[in-house]
Amino acid sequence: LKAEPDFIRIFRHEKAIPQYVVGHADRLQAIEEKLQGHPGLVLTGNAFKGVSLNDCVVNAGKIAESLSLIGLHKNEATSLDRNLFSTDEKWEADQ
User: Fold this and answer.
1) Over the chain, what is the mean pLDDT?
2) In which region does residue 45 sit, left (phi positive, over 0), alpha (psi from -120 to 50) or beta (all else)?
3) Alpha-carbon distance 30 to 53, whole Å?
């Protein structure tokens, strides 16, 4: 992946685990429902599933695995696939 993100927002919680405000779970549910209409768009971070670095790492692995499945249909390649394989290698692997 070579493109820069369009938007980045970083919150630093010095010496603390983030404290979620009342209604946070409801907002997450609303976000999840909106994302259903946008396959392949994922959001992650400590505000979504868990609060610690360990939670972020575990969730990132799950997201990476789910995104890798998107391009597994025959003769389709994701941007990641195009970076990992030449076009000929990808098509040969599918056949």
Assistant:
1) 75
2) left
3) 24
